[in-house]
Each structure stands twice: as C-alpha cells, then as structure tokens.
From TrEMBL:
This is Ig-like domain-containing protein. GO terms for molecular function: cell-cell adhesion mediator activity; integrin binding; protein heterodimerization activity; protein homodimerization activity. SMART domains: IG, IGc2. GO terms for cellular component: bicellular tight junction; cell-cell contact zone; plasma membrane; protein complex involved in cell adhesion. It is a single-pass type I membrane protein. Signal peptide: none annotated. Its main location: other. The keyword Transcription regulation does not apply.
C-alpha cells in the first residue's frame, strides 16, 4: 500500500512539474563561449526549451565594456540611435516599446546579421569589433514565469599581419646578438617561430642533433632570437613567422653575415695607435729642447738694461771707467 502511495505521489509530482514548466519560458544555448574567425559567419544560439506564449518578445543586446547596445529590437536588427541604459528583466519588457527605446543605444550589426528561428542570431561576417558579450532576452506574457535570458561570450580571432623583423647584417664569430620579431594585430596574441635557410629552428636546440652546438634561444611569446656566441654556421637567411588560431604571416627573409675575428685589422689598428703615441712624444721632446715651454725674462737674451742717467754713458763698457762728458761740471 505504501508503494502505491509512493508511486502515485511521484506521478502527481511529475505531472505538476510538467504543468509548471509548460507555464514558464526557459532558454538554453549550445555554447556560452563562442570563438569565430574574422570575416567568417557565426551563429549565436538562443534555444527556447519551454514556452506557452505564441508571440514572445525577443531581444538581443551586445554588452561591450559594460555598455549595452541593441542588436535585435522590435523584430528587426537595430540600426537607429537609441538612449543608453542597462535596464533589463520582465519589468523592462512590461514597460512597453517606448521605454525599451530609451533603454539602450543602437548596435553596429545592421545589414550584417539576421534573426533565425527560434531566436538565434546569425552574423554574416564577423569583425574584431564584434568581440563582446551578447544577451538573449525572451518575454512571454502568457507564461507564469514570463521572462528568461541567457548570456553568450563571443571572441573573434584576428589573423596576424606581416611582422616587423630585425636581423643584423653582419656579426663577428664569438659575439652575442639578437634577432627581433613583432606583430600587434593578431588576436589572440600570436606565437613566434624562426626559420634559418627555410628550415624551422627548434625551440630548444638540444632537441635537434643538427643544432646541438648552437647557443641560441627563442622566446615564442616576444619573438626574440638570441645568440650567446655566434658561429660561422649561423650565417644565412632568417625570417620570422607569427601564428595564431586564425592564421599566420611572415616577414621577408633577411641575410646575416658572420665574419671571423680580424687579427690583421686589430694589429694594424694597434700599430697605428702606437705610432701616433711615439710621434706625439717626439714632438713634445723637440719642443722642450727648443725652449718653447720656458718662461721669458729669466735669461740673458731677454735681459732688460737699466735706464741711463744724464751724463753717464753705459755703452763703453770696455774701458772699465765712466767717461766724463763735456757737460759734466765739477
């Protein structure tokens, strides 16, 4: 008897749940996080699992940086400027179309999207500006639960453009150098790979017998290719490739020459420096011998004779005495 009551109760509960669910609008989606490639179509699904109202009101909003804008409004893709707000929910729907016009601004999907049954949004050619959150809202006035919504996140992948590569034209054996690669357009941020003479360099040279003795390291996030000690074998053409899930792009090949240490050049430069030093020293010594650096006023050639007094002639020094002038009077 107890089992009969239990079975009857289960049937009643199931029937009641079915009746209540039939009086509520319920939404679901196949994917809450959606990825799409730029310039390709994508469909955001808003599936109505349960509803009693024949003509529910369906709206789509795009939310970017916290600011909502209409995508689908009043049975068409929004294209007119509307007021700005974030109002939503059943009260928003019951307020009528005039209140709805004041609740959001227009979107940027006019002529690029359409509503597909039952409430999906199809974007014909996505752009990077379409990356945002999208909210599907359905109001059913004849249902006991007359409102439901679902939020979907859309991320648009962008193919990288041709990266900017920097390769030194010439380096010397045994020195360090760095090759650079940079790209700013791709989304998500691309990973970088380097090629030497059309052969991809492994991320870790120790994993390849051919590059086992190489001293380079690659940063796939920043695009840097660093050599601790350049070898003669490192000479050749280099180019970089930036790649993400949307595609890849690469810069034109650039040549890097590797030269041996120029011993003769170093010797000639050292010899020239020594020669200049000795020439400078000889010039200083010669100037000292000529007395170019002595101070004037302390030798006989520059002696200043004392001034002559009246009646005395100092120029006849060979007689040893003063001569009396006729003008001298005792």
């Amino acid at each position: 008897m107890a089992m009969v009551r239990l079975a009857a109760g289960f049937v009643v509960y199931t029937s009641l749940g079915h009746i209540l669910s039939s009086l509520a609008v319920i939404l679901r989606t196949t994917d809450k996080i959606v990825w799409a490639n730029e310039f390709e179509p994508i469909e955001l699904t808003c599936l109505i699992e349960s509803i009693s109202t024949n003509n529910p009101r369906i709206e789509w909003k795009k939310i970017k940086n916290g600011v909502p804008s209409y995508v689908y409004f009043q049975n068409k893709i929004a294209g007119k400027q509307l007021g700005l707000s974030s109002a939503r929910g059943p009260q928003h729907f019951r307020a009528g179309s005039q209140a709805s016009k004041r609740s959001c601004m227009n979107g940027d999907l006019e002529h690029r999207a359409q509503l597909r049954e039952p409430a999906n949004i199809l974007i014909f050619n996505t752009s990077r500006s379409d990356t945002a959150e999208y909210r599907c809202e359905v109001a059913a006035i004849d249902d006991q639960r007359d409102f439901d919504e679902i939020l979907i996140s859309l991320a648009v992948r962008v193919k990288p453009v041709v990266p900017r590569c920097s390769v030194p034209e010439a380096v010397t054996v045994g020195t360090s150098t760095e090759l650079r690669c940079l790209e700013n357009e791709g989304f998500p941020a691309p990973q970088y790979r380097w090629f030497h003479n059309n052969e991809e360099l492994p991320q870790d040279p120790k994993n390849s017998h051919k590059f086992l003795n190489s001293s380079y390291s690659i940063n796939p996030d920043t695009g840097g290719l660093k050599f601790r000690r350049v070898r003669k074998e490192d000479a050749g053409e280099y180019y970089c490739q930036a790649k993400n899930d949307a595609g890849h792009a690469q810069c034109p090949p650039q040549m890097m020459e590797v030269y041996d240490v120029d011993i003769l050049g170093i010797f000639l430069k050292s010899f020239a420096a020594v020669a200049v030093f000795f020439c400078l020293a000889a010039s200083i010594c010669h100037s000292l011998k000529r007395g170019c650096f002595h101070k004037k006023g302390h030798n006989e050639n520059n002696y200043n004779w004392p001034a002559q007094n009246d009646g005395v002639n100092y120029r006849d020094a060979d007689e040893g005495h003063f001569r009396h002038k006729s003008s001298f009077i005792i």
